[in-house]
Write a structure and sequence with these properties.
Layout (H helix, E strand, L loop, with lengths): L1 H17 L7 H36 L1 H7 L4 H6 L1 H21 L2 H22 L6 H39 L3 H21 L4 H31 L3 H18 L3 H23 L2 H4 L1 H11 L1
Length: about 300
Amino acid sequence: MTAAAATAAALFFVLWWMLQGEESPWVPAGLAASVVMLVAAFARLLVARKVSRQRRIPDHMDWHNQAESGRRSYEDVMRSRSMHAAALRALQRQSLDADAKEAPEGHRHVYELCADYVTGAERALQAPTIQPEGRMALRAGVERVRELQKHHLLAWARGSARALTHEAQKRSRLFEKVETANRALECIDSALKVYPDEEQLNVSARAVREFIISSRVAHWVELAERAAFKGYYQRAIDCYRDALYYLTRDRADVAGEAAADRITREIELLRVRLDSGDVIHSNPDNQNKKGRRRR
């Protein structure tokens, strides 16, 4: 600003000297000098804002990286009212970003950040040197972050379970279906350990378990139908019994009872065929024995 003032003064006197023959030469000279000062003041304002922002970012916005790198602990961050407010704003922005992207891993990351925030805030609240205003702000922040923590954990569990269930549906082999679906159950169970009374998680867990049961039952029913079509009635009965085992063991609702009744009727029909029809054609082992006798 000193250099700008000197430049404006020099420009004023130079223009005044050059316009001596004109009427009121000090008017254009004064306007030119004023323009120089206005430009300098505007440039100074921009530079001051930029410097202030750069100084504020390491101390306020990068609170999580500083705590992870050891330069500051979460407890120290929470003791500073300005850094605590900046940490809360940063968490809220990351929460909005995770909701917008709808990626399960993003929700998991925000959940972990919220857990770090709550841990640091609770430790800071135990310090006797914290001011009453800061204590009230910390408690309000903890309540808000706990809500975000629950929201993102549920969103992560729900999104991960949905993605893994869709992946399991695309698998062709039974053990791959069950293995992928069990991974979905593990995600839900990990969230249930934190929020055991959350109904959304229980509903998701039941849906995944029903998918596993239906996959197993459908697998054994398909094998039984193939065996019955080829005339292997005893093998078909055994496969139907396996399907009935998984159905009655893991599913006790109305739909499960109806499916069990249908399978039981199929077993009875196959027993009638087995008793009244050609036993040899109903068992592949008997066919092999008959072939050996003929040879």
